[in-house]
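Appendix B, record 7
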Amino acid sequence: MKKNLLALFIGINIFFSLWNSLEVKAENQETYFIVTAYYSPLPNQDFYLKWDYEKEIYLNGQWIKWASGKWVFPWMLAAPKKYSFGTKIYLEWIGIWVVEDRGWAIVEAWKRGYEYDRIDVWMGYGQEWLLKALKWGKRKVKGYIVDSSTKTNISLNETKITENKKVASLSQVKKETPLSLYEKSIGKDSSKDDIKELQKTLQLYWLYNWKLDGIYNNEVINIILNFQKNNNLIKNDTDAWAGYWWIKTRNLFAKQYKDKDEKKQEIVNKKEEKNTLNIFEMTISPDSDKEKIILLQSFFKEIGKYSWETTGKYSDIKDTLISYQIDKKIVKDKNEVWVGYFWPKTRQMAKSDYDKINLEKKKNKELAEKKEKLLLSKSNDAKNIVSSLGNIKFWETSQEVREFQKILKILWYFNYDDTATFGDITKKSLISYQIKKWIIKNEKDDSAWIFWPKTKENLTKDLANYFTEKELKGKELAMK
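Structure tokens (predicted):
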């Protein structure tokens, strides 16, 4: 009896195994899959899903070889056992993949709550692909099995991963024109050209002052992190897209910087168009046309004498014009004949003031350009000095601590003798600096008085600014 039951049990198992194998859809027969994504961790990532490399390997596997015994390559996926190794599956919007792996959670339909067979696509190595795998999440994707001789053809396009823009078939994926900086995500694994373009843009808005080297360095990360935090785009530094130039970050950055800049340029262009009518060659009175009165209002606004709207109404500019004439001693009082008229003597004085202001603007622009070049040079010097300090610690006594105390002293955070000992006074000075620079909130913060990267980066920036201002001031005094 026991033998008969055992034979029956084995027979049922064989039957269900055969039944499951028959459930695999025929070639080109459309169905749906639940598609998830995973990646392979690398040492020294900035963050891990499970907080450290060893736990991440345990979660994802090291993926040197797959379950089929083949070495890792990009278009491989994990599928339930009913799909034999080598089965090729077309997945809408992301191409043709090949089954070469298994997984304890990769199950058939109606198991573990899945309506369709679950498959897992491998994204790639490292932190950038962890982010993309997280962004992919879990999706219902249309697909079908293709002939095993069909060439694999994957398309993990950034916009398709992050924004889920669907297309009906591979033939409908059109060649896209090159994306602008504000249309693509950029991170550590992006191309050097893309990173350099981002660095140039950040430099344009006076946010980045390091080399344009195409490296996604800590300076770039911290600029973007601070922007994301200040605008509530992330909750903390461990958020999936913290420090990355992703869609919400770049859209808001464009709104706050690029779009505003373009509007300013538009205003400048309009002013230049208006200035083809030379205001210093025309008499303007209450009877002048609206366009001329707007020019007069715009002129006084530009030299800082008028702060209201350019309405084209003479009554709005008249008091400003009279005050200017009296102040410049063009007229003695309000009873003179030419009071409140933009006539030759007033125009001549206005032209003189305008030229002075433009000369000052030119000097300031030249100084800013000079300062920018000098700052890049001094940034390298400051970086070398701060790097030479190493990782100094509380109660350490060394020459590095002495140099650190000197840096705090010139930045006005340490008003004591440099003892070369990292004691309580140095600790308090460092905490004051960290709070002032928004590195920590208070002295109970986990990072308080720890000489970590963010503190080093701020010190480097402040030291570079100090060296730059000192050299510029020295040259200015020498000229006098």
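Remarks on this record: Confidence is low (pLDDT under 50) at residues 5-23, 162-177, 272-276, 476-480. The longest strand covers residues 31-40.
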